[in-house]
Amino acid sequence: MSESSSSGYLQSLFGLSGKTAVVIGGTGVLGGAIADTLAQAGAHVVIVGRNAVNGAGRVKMIEELQGTAEFFKADSTSREDLEALVAHLKANGRTTDILVNGAGINAATPFLEISDEEWEQIFRVNLLSVKVACQVFGQSMLDNDVAGSIINIASMSAITPLSRVFTYSASKAAVLNLTQNLAREWAERSIRVNALSPGFFPAEQNRKVLTPERVASIMNHTPANRFGDPEELAGAVLLLAAGKAGSFVTGTNVAVDGGFSCMTI
Q1: What PANTHER family has UniProt attached to this entry (predicted)?
Q2: Over the stretch 183-215, which tens digit does the pLDDT of each residue have?
Q3: How far is CA 204 from CA 52, 104, 231, in A?
Q4: pLDDT tens column, 19-40
Q5: In the annotation, is 168 catalytic?
């Protein structure tokens, strides 16, 4: 197979030309890397978040790499904001083909000290935002008969809870359950719903819990013996987003964790 034919084959499998991808939480480190990947595969990417400065910066980076993107300011938990984005896309002749639910927050509070307010806030951002976005954009996909892909960002702590992040672990476990339920519900309509669980990737939401002692513990339980780089999520993201290569993948959780999930003692 020649280089050009090989390139064409890979493009047919993983290419996203003509697709529109909405990345909620795209102003963050991991969400931004996911947005970059989707844009480089040919999708028009809508960066969704509250930080306009970070959003504009990500759009500029994508455009410098010859991709297309725009920023849309919205609260990930606001149905009104997300419905406004659907209307904005419709007004510009677009429908959502790919949805990434990447908004998330964390806290390292001892269990007996977790306030109801903290619990509710973390569940609101980590779980309610996924539920609302899946309702709003899922309805749009159904209405427009789109063979779409929804990627919910979960966590390794959703499978085996990590110490000191009780609420985060519980909220991400719920994200996995919701992902499987929606995959079953919408499979016959060609809407795939999957989860992506990064291992340890330093980002804004977890830096405050990465004490030297915790880092040492993480390395002892990660066969790769290092943190992940955001770009290392690219392969998994493309598989889950691609209409051809990932067309039979739904209801699954893809772990990108340097071997963390296979470590016992």
Answers
A1: 3-OXOACYL-[ACYL-CARRIER-PROTEIN] REDUCTASE FABG, SHORT-CHAIN DEHYDROGENASES/REDUCTASES FAMILY MEMBER
A2: 999 999 999 999 999 988 876 555 666 778 778
A3: 16, 10, 16
A4: 999 999 999 999 999 999 999 9
A5: yes
